[in-house]
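Dear colleague,

Thank you for sharing your sequence with our group. We've completed the structure prediction you requested, and as agreed, I am returning the results in plain text so they can be pasted directly into your records. Please verify that the sequence below matches your submission; if there's any discrepancy, let me know and we will rerun it promptly.
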Amino acid sequence: LFGHVKGAFTSANENRTGRFEAAHGGTIFLDEINSMSYTLQVKLLRVLQEHEFERVGDTKTIHVDCRVVAATNRDLLDEIDANRFREDLYYRLNVVPIYLPPLRDRPEDIGALVAFFAKKYADANGRSIPQVPHDVITMLQAYSWPGNVRELQNYIERATVLCMNDLFTMDLFPSHVRGLAPMRISRVKAGGIQKMCSELVTLGMLEAGDAAQDIHERIVSLVEKEVLLQVLRTCQGTQTKAAVRLGINRNTLHKKIEDYGLDSEAR
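Please find the predicted structure tokens below.
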């Protein structure tokens, strides 16, 4: 980020301009800023506050003026509580926050993303752009995408390479994406399922508001619907198998499917 001068360390054979110096008058993008070391955070804070820094091994101060855009896949407030991120740096960076919802919350974007990645990897491999049937898009929209857009990108690259007739078919995608195996989930944070449950209830209460009088039904029904949905998908919609896995009567399951509007998932 800050460059170095010749002889600053063993492999420093020549002067090198840092990213901040190169971005003077423009914009610098700092990805996954939550993984930045504490020492580097101190240097970054100085650049943001004073608009100046020194190259490694140099005493000359360099002044810069650039726009800083930073991204993180972690909650920085949690990182602050864990003493992994400086609170003063967080508030210095948090000028115009932009929240990008996970892919599972914007399934309407999947069609456009699939078309973009299919063209990209078809061009890269010297192949025709494959057609994407509606049932494949519907399948992809039903998946939870714990790896977000990068996971979708990887599976579209895979499908493009394996596609033999310029047409995407369901069998080109992993079984868990097709609903034939339990959905993969992202790595659980410390505290496991109990902590996740606590966070879900807290979020549900916040969204419900202080005046709500249906908090129990609101949160419990949300969890129950998701349980039914995922079990139905792992059982390919077969209600008899799903009822056995859920440990409930088939008639009870049938009624819940109707109540939650899951008819399209069952057979």
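Summary note from our side: Residues 230 and 260 are 13 Å apart (CA to CA).

Kind regards,
the structure core
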